[in-house]
Design goal:
The protein is an alpha+beta fold. The protein folds into 3 domains: about 10-195, Histidine kinase-like ATPase, C-terminal domain (Heat Shock Protein 90); about 205-310, Ribosomal Protein S5, domain 2 (2-Layer Sandwich); about 315-420, formyl-coa transferase, domain 3 (2-Layer Sandwich), CATH 3.30.1540. It has helices spanning about 10-20, 25-35, 100-105, 155-160, 165-180, 205-210, 255-265, 295-310, 350-360, 365-370, 380-390, 415-420; strands at about 40-45, 55-60, 105-115, 120-125, 130-135, 140-145, 185-190, 195-200, 215-225, 225-235, 240-245, 250, 270-275, 280, 290-295, 330-335, 335-340, 345-350, 410. Strand 16 (about 330-335) and strand 17 (about 335-340) form a beta hairpin. Magnesium ion binds near residues 29, 32, 33, 93 and 98. Magnesium ion binds near residues 32, 33, 93 and 98.
Amino acid sequence: MLVKFLPEEVRAKISAGEVIESPSDCVKELIENSLDASANRIEVEIIKGGKRYILVKDDGVGIHPEDLPRVILPFSTSKIERFEDLMSLRSYGFRGEGLHTISRVSRMLISSRFFNQETGYEMKVEEGKVVYVRERGMPVGTKVEVFDLFYNLPVRRNFLKKEDTERTRIIQLVKSYALVRPEVSFRLMSDGKEIMNLPSVKDPKERVEDIYNTRFEELLLERDGIKVRAFLSVSQKRGEIRLFINSRPVQNRELLEYIKRVVGNRRIGICFLEMPQYMLDVNVHPKKWDVRLMQVGKVKELISESIKRKAYLPSLSQEKGHYSAEPELVGIIESTIIVAKWMDSLYFIDQHLLEERINYEKGLSSERACKSAIKAGEKLSTAQANKLLKEWTKLSNPHTCPHGRPMHYRIPLKEVYKQIGREL
Ligand SMILES: Nc1ncnc2c1ncn2[C@@H]1O[C@H](COP(=O)(O)OP(=O)(O)OP(=O)(O)O)[C@@H](O)[C@H]1O
Ligand SMILES: [Mg+2]
């Protein structure tokens, strides 16, 4: 057998298979590019599950006209310069192969107007080669269109999943990025129909609730530089777990299985982890669907602690006590803390957080619940305080505010008696 060197085009097509196997892989690369370009609005359009046509349009910084022909060259990136840059990476992209790979296996139109330019340019690309570049009027930003994916790789094309399957994958993908970037508005069109239209929001919880159309609890925990922010659905229906590490959607099997075990099968659990970039290696998966973590054990511990701390607390009304009277107002400290005796304990309750939680459970968004609640330092009448206490006992979560902060501090009366040397 004679060993031969494969020609460049064959090499490129073979290696393209690692990054781009399906329309959803293209959409992933293009959305990540738009996010890296600081887009505030991203529009995705697909025809026939993306097999016929994919468009990703953004209002980001755009591509400089001189850079336009370079973006489809292999290893062309504006995001890193040295390997060590991966240690402090803040962008999704770093390999400089996304556009190159797509351009090898499709026909593309890349149009862009750089933020400080008067006009935009459109570049047509076929089989990785520039066919033309011409001027074109357009707003600042970038629009990438991909036609007939794998038209030049018939075997790969035949192996594509059904249109419906590809469409579902793309919807899930757009959802993922929408979950992790609530400040960006997303719109998804499929065969001319609008599938998703999410306005930009400040509070991540609002985005989560917009997407799943159900209420969530927010849990927060931070230790040793690792931060867990998780959202758990209040209602129990069909379970779904999603994991994000430093803003990347990640499919790390070990962690996903673990979270599922802690959360249970019937809740939606969205888990965002943040940690210093040096604690992970993002360069381990061809499509960047996984990362390697330095301290998995510690991460697991934090996840289970944050989730267990809230989700499985028994509600107040289920707690067994010696007395089951209504809460009794003891007083209000510094127009901020309501002190009440209820069942066998003394409670110190933050008046603002309590009213915020009541408003929230009545159906207001967490932001509005907060705005319309009484502030710390504002004077409550005894009647008002008693009314709040009454509503407190009926809350489905009487322990934390909508943002996950504990709203009361409890001392068992037994403890008070014990401290002063009396038996209860
Ligand atoms: N939507 C966009 N807006 C602005 N610039 C873009 C956009 N898409 C691509 N670019 C520019 O083109 C370059 C090449 O993009 P490409 O996706 O091929 O590589 P990358 O994002 O740098 O790395 P990776 O291969 O890991 O995604 C980017 O580094 C960026 O400078
Ligand atoms: Mg990229």
